[in-house]
Design a protein that fits this description.
This protein has seven helices and twelve strands. The chain has helices spanning 74-79, 118-125, 129-133, 152-161, 185-190, 193-198, 215-227, and strands spanning 4-14, 19-25, 36-43, 46-53, 63-68, 87-91, 108-114, 136-143, 166-172, 181-182, 207-213, 241-245. It has two domains: 4-91, Elongation Factor Tu (Ef-tu), domain 3, CATH 2.40.30; 100-245, Rossmann fold, CATH 3.40.50.80. Bound molecules: flavin-adenine dinucleotide and NADP nicotinamide-adenine-dinucleotide phosphate. NADP nicotinamide-adenine-dinucleotide phosphate binds next to strand 8, helix 5 and helix 7.
Length: 249
Amino acid sequence: MSAWIEGTVVRLRPWTDELYSLQLKADIPSFTAGQFARLALDIDGERVARPYSFVNSPDNPVLEFYFILVPNGPLTHELVRLQPGDTVYIASRAAGFFILSEVPDAEVLWMLSTGTAIGPFLSILGEDAVWERFKNIVLVHAVRTAAELTYQDEINDLLEKHPEQLQMIPFVSREDTPLAIRGRVPDAIQDGRLEARAGIPLNAENSQVMICGNPAMVRDTTRVLEARGLKKNKRRDPGHITTEQYWKD
Ligand SMILES: Cc1cc2nc3c(=O)[nH]c(=O)nc-3n(C[C@H](O)[C@H](O)[C@H](O)COP(=O)(O)OP(=O)(O)OC[C@H]3O[C@@H](n4cnc5c(N)ncnc54)[C@H](O)[C@@H]3O)c2cc1C
Ligand SMILES: NC(=O)c1ccc[n+]([C@@H]2O[C@H](COP(=O)([O-])OP(=O)(O)OC[C@H]3O[C@@H](n4cnc5c(N)ncnc54)[C@H](OP(=O)(O)O)[C@@H]3O)[C@@H](O)[C@H]2O)c1
């Protein structure tokens, strides 16, 4: 177990009634983009800890975490009450293998996220390595409603900086919007809508795919990709699919 370090809340930014970004200052050792930290609060005399992906890149001294208020969720119900200056405990050592060094080289990197799982991709996109390794990067953010398409300013900055390399493809499943694909990611891979929108084929020869968030989406997307010949990445048996699930199905 790593030790707890006291972090200080800089800001709690509400995006919607359910979605929040928490900014903290804490003197933690460096982490790798794509990793998560364990955050904790003392609730009714017990330290309640949960993992959260870093949204900031490692060179940014303000730590940022993007979370959803989960119905009856013990920790998130307290996180949403935080005020600037409050203390949040953060485990001294970051963890996780949803990082670029675990992903083999390819021409195209597909970054597929649901909900709050856009976070680790923003952390990775804030560093040089990803732009040096992949010719094309397709960032997908799949949400229920358009209001949940957050971090637009940060994404637009990345699009301006890397116009030839980066595409952002939003998915909204529960309402019609002018720009987003309506529906779910695995369906849009299966019926070709994702590739058509990107103008890039998704296959085992040209692509690496990182998938993060809702476990059902991770599972269903993995199945669709496996059916077209992509396979999971293993250290001793490199493939094409690297995943992280935010909870258990
Ligand atoms: C590696 C890893 C990284 C994670 N990173 C993030 C992150 O960056 N942002 C974040 O919001 N959560 C993240 N989570 C989930 C987070 O750790 C908590 O589980 C979540 O914030 C709810 O905490 P809770 O104590 O309120 O409820 P819990 O008792 O932990 O969760 C209750 C239920 O809520 C649902 N749930 C949990 N997390 C989510 C979620 N993100 N979106 C939708 N439903 C969820 C699940 O059904 C879960 O069983 C991550 C989890 C893992 C394993
Ligand atoms: N977002 C909200 O407004 C809201 C409000 C209150 C509570 N919550 C709670 O917060 C949690 C999750 O909310 P969330 O909005 O982050 O996420 P979510 O339920 O994970 O949905 C995010 C996106 O993933 C899609 N998805 C779900 N299952 C999938 C699958 N098997 N394959 C492909 N795509 C799939 C959803 O499509 P579908 O729409 O088709 O499912 C949606 O577009 C839930 O516990 C929920 O009860 C959310």
